[in-house]
Records
---
Amino acid sequence: MPTGMSTTSTDNTTGNTTDNSGDKSGDHNGDHSADEIRTTVPGLSESDSQTLVSLLQERLVAAIDLQLTLKHIHWNVVGMNFIAIHEMLDPQVDAVRVQSDEIAERISTLGGEPRGTPGAVIEIRSWDDYEIDRAPTVQHLVALDKVYTGVITDHRAAVDKVGELDPVSEDLLIGHLRDLELFQWFVRAHLKDATGDVVHRQTFDKS
Ligand SMILES: [Fe+2]
């Protein structure tokens, strides 16, 4: 809380004014230097907020990278079932774009500075760029399945860490995870036979 900000509130039913700070450390008595700006949400420490911002920044980079990769596939996919794959991807792009906006705004809400430039994505991400340009549908779907596996795995790990500090950020990421897992099912459904086995995974999988 910025130095000098009121820590009192008025009960709407009684009109009584009470001290809400619950702060035994004396922060509001001027222990912090005048130029230290404290802008996180009430009830979260600055330290925990910084940890959350760092975790959310990684998820922001993943969401930006994913939405660009999905559009890249949308433009470059060819062959059988072209229109099905081409049109399946745009709603995923839109959803992931919203996710990146929500993550970035959560970072700002916690007092952080979201980094969303192409340079920031390249600097922060820990994975290689999507390698395939124009290619048949199955080749792109096999590659995209792997992309979703990476994003979802990292997202789940972030949910666990974020959940130890902030249920609001955890709730946000869980909602995103639900959509990402749905989208991976859409992709995998194209690669399976009627028994549920993934029959095309080996077709273009060089790893
Ligand atoms: Fe398009």
---
Amino acid sequence: MTERNNTCVASAMQRRHQNFMKLLELTYEDFNYDFSQVRFDKDVDSLVRIRCPRHGWINTKAKKLLAGRGCVSCNTESLMDQGAMIYIIRCFDSQEEFYKIGITTKSIEQRFIFPALMPYEYEVLSLQNGDRKKLYKFEALLLRLLKKYKYKPKKSFTGQTECFSNIEPIRKKFNIFDVFGIDSFKRAV
Ligand SMILES: [Zn+2]
């Protein structure tokens, strides 16, 4: 094999790894798994190493991660079919104020219980239960509408890329605070 071919194979593998990591990130945003040791450079039957917050470091097949199983000791079934919640929260401290949109399969409290996960104070503006896949589509739409208001918080945390300085466009368009009122928040927790 020529050197050029080797380079091509290497970059294809790299892309494959990157796509795999992106999928993990999207699928498991709310699970606090550690994927830092994951190296996806073989096939889906190969083992990868992840850290579960309950079970520590475990080896699992790449295809099981792709199927949404997460930690096999925690989950006997795919997590994909489970419901989820889309939330909008207002985050603030004495210096900053912004809004965050996200999807979680846990309650908001569980999602942000550790200060490292949410280093700001927050107020829940809206919360809606639904099918995970549909909520991801809906979230993508909301994020697109808010694109020009993207905000980068000064303190870093998981999900900090979905923060915005203003949410007026979606408030008008979806009448979001009537539909996803505080009542649905109370029902959900
Ligand atoms: Zn586990």
